Protein backbone atom coordinates (compact mmCIF):
# COMPACT_ATOMS: atom_id res chain seq x y z
CA UNK A 1 0.00 0.00 0.00
CA UNK A 2 1.41 3.39 -0.97
CA UNK A 3 0.90 6.83 0.55
CA UNK A 4 -1.75 7.84 -1.99
CA UNK A 5 -3.85 4.82 -1.09
CA UNK A 6 -3.52 5.55 2.64
CA UNK A 7 -4.29 9.25 2.26
CA UNK A 8 -7.23 8.46 -0.01
CA UNK A 9 -8.80 6.11 2.52
CA UNK A 10 -8.15 8.69 5.26
CA UNK A 11 -9.98 11.37 3.26
CA UNK A 12 -12.88 9.01 2.70
CA UNK A 13 -13.15 8.36 6.44
CA UNK A 14 -12.97 12.09 7.26
CA UNK A 15 -15.63 12.70 4.63
CA UNK A 16 -17.93 10.08 6.13
CA UNK A 17 -17.52 11.69 9.55
CA UNK A 18 -18.22 15.20 8.22
CA UNK A 19 -21.23 13.93 6.28
CA UNK A 20 -22.65 12.24 9.39
CA UNK A 21 -22.04 15.33 11.54
CA UNK A 22 -23.74 17.46 8.89
CA UNK A 23 -26.79 15.19 8.87
CA UNK A 24 -27.05 15.08 12.67
CA UNK A 25 -26.62 18.85 13.07
CA UNK A 26 -28.75 19.61 10.00
CA UNK A 27 -25.83 21.48 8.41
CA UNK A 28 -25.99 21.07 4.62
CA UNK A 29 -22.61 22.77 4.12
CA UNK A 30 -20.88 20.27 6.42
CA UNK A 31 -22.69 17.42 4.70
CA UNK A 32 -21.55 18.68 1.29
CA UNK A 33 -17.99 19.06 2.55
CA UNK A 34 -18.11 15.41 3.62
CA UNK A 35 -19.38 14.32 0.23
CA UNK A 36 -16.61 16.24 -1.52
CA UNK A 37 -13.95 14.80 0.80
CA UNK A 38 -15.18 11.30 0.06
CA UNK A 39 -15.00 11.95 -3.66
CA UNK A 40 -11.49 13.37 -3.39
CA UNK A 41 -10.46 10.40 -1.28
CA UNK A 42 -11.77 7.94 -3.84
CA UNK A 43 -9.86 9.70 -6.62
CA UNK A 44 -6.62 9.72 -4.61
CA UNK A 45 -7.02 6.05 -3.67
CA UNK A 46 -7.68 5.14 -7.31
CA UNK A 47 -4.50 7.00 -8.29
CA UNK A 48 -2.58 5.05 -5.64
CA UNK A 49 -4.11 1.80 -6.85
CA UNK A 50 -3.00 2.57 -10.41
CA UNK A 51 0.54 3.31 -9.22
CA UNK A 52 0.64 0.00 -7.35
CA UNK A 53 -0.68 -1.86 -10.39
CA UNK A 54 1.97 -0.26 -12.61
CA UNK A 55 4.69 -1.15 -10.11
CA UNK A 56 3.48 -4.74 -9.92
CA UNK A 57 3.32 -4.99 -13.70
CA UNK A 58 6.88 -3.66 -14.01
CA UNK A 59 8.07 -6.29 -11.54
CA UNK A 60 6.36 -9.03 -13.54
CA UNK A 61 7.91 -7.89 -16.80
CA UNK A 62 11.40 -7.43 -15.32
CA UNK A 63 11.91 -10.20 -12.77
UniProtKB/TrEMBL annotation:
Region called Disordered, residue ranges: 1-63
SUPFAM superfamilies in the cross-refs: Hypothetical protein YjbJ
Domain CsbD-like intervals: 4-56
Compositional bias of kind Basic and acidic residues: 48-63
Gene3D superfamilies: YjbJ
Top-level taxonomic group: Bacteria
Assigned protein family: Belongs to the UPF0337 (CsbD) family.
Protein name stated in the entry: CsbD family protein
Protein species of origin: Paraburkholderia sejongensis
